[in-house]
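Re: that chain you flagged

S.,

Sorry for the slow reply, it's been a week of failed gels. I finally had a moment to sit down with the sequence you sent. For the record, here it is as I used it:
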Amino acid sequence: MKVLMINGSPHPKGNTQTALNEMIKIFDQQNIDTEIIHIGNKDIRGCIACMSCKKNGKCIFDDIVNEVARKFEECDGLVVGTPVYFGSANSTLISFLTRLFYSVPFDKTMKVGASVVVARRGGISATYDEINKFFAISGMPIASTQYWNAIHGREQGEAMQDEEGLQTMRVLARNMTFLLKSIHDGKEKYGIPEKEEFTRTNFIR
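Prediction finished late last night. Pasting the structure tokens below so you have them in one place:
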């Protein structure tokens, strides 16, 4: 099994990376393969609603979004990490996720999602909800932990002083591993939930 991890921080060795590394310790123990992709310092534009992806199966802007799309299809779980900026996720990450989730043609049902949020102090719960919506509307079970999926720190390395936050990351990785393995076994025994044709309605007729 493989977990794809997205680092949405502009700083490749910052506190978001510290949080993801703490999860990797557990994934390694559980024989879960991991790959971290750092996108927080990339030049990623937002979606323009051109709908080209529905015709071509990929985003019209051929950048890291399309590169990661192939890895996303192959993985069993996705971890998205971000710092908190003005009570929300890094805007580069949101542009990336919006285009990624909308443009990919494959079914994301039963891939496990987990958000990881890093803050100096506040804005964690709002950012946690912001990231989780991508999983929730895609049929992806959301991995949780013993508290918010969060760790605190501002300057590089400060997250290592947050003992509760580090423990929270380890518990999150264990819970995610359990979900991954349970879903894997469940697919073999029961398959995935039956799909219905999507009924799409508009408020304006």
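What I noticed first: Helices lie at 15-29, 52-56, 64-74, 91-103, 124-136, 163-190.

Talk soon,
D.
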